[in-house]
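The data layer described in this paper is built around a simple, fixed record for each protein. Such a record has a labelled line for the sequence and another for the backbone structure tokens. For reference, a complete record is included directly beneath this paragraph.
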Amino acid sequence: MSSPSRAYRGAAAHERVAARRERLIDAGIDLFGTVGHRSTTIEQICAQAGLSKRYFYESFSDSEALLLACYQRCAGEIHQEMVDAVIAAPDSMGARLHAALAGYFGAIDNDPRHARITLLEILGVSASIDTAYAAQTERFGTSVRALADEAFSVCPLPPAQLQIIAEGIIGAITTVATQWLLDDRRRARDQVVAATQVLVLAVLERLESY
């Protein structure tokens, strides 16, 4: 019979493993989001986290696995910012769209590390990372369809084609965000949100009249 996890400093062994993993993800976001994934070594991650390499490999097989965990956390937090903004918005498609865009651009403006990881560092790393990126794009696209249900529900196009359009909207938004990031976010955030809203509304209005 296996012995139960030993408690240490008030935490069970599995809780300490989880806490160390979170510290490594925190360190990964700090370094991948500033100097970049390709320029960051595992030794630097461990030094930032205050942990030995033994504990890195306790949770991650390599730096790519850590990058994936960092990406998933950043994308999840950005998505939640958008959801929270939409929930608090007036109940109209235009208001919900503006709230979602404000939430998105606000999230990446408030923490450019998240922007760099989700928009730049994640691209072209490996097939498995590409799969995770595609899954997040599909997730955000599904949220677009829910947010703008008035437009999507009346359009007679097949569901698969509507999903492609929703994911295309996400692609347009992330392209604007990437350019904004590469330009050191010189344009005012409100201006970027307003311009992107015009772009997205053009697609939604076309769906409504299709």
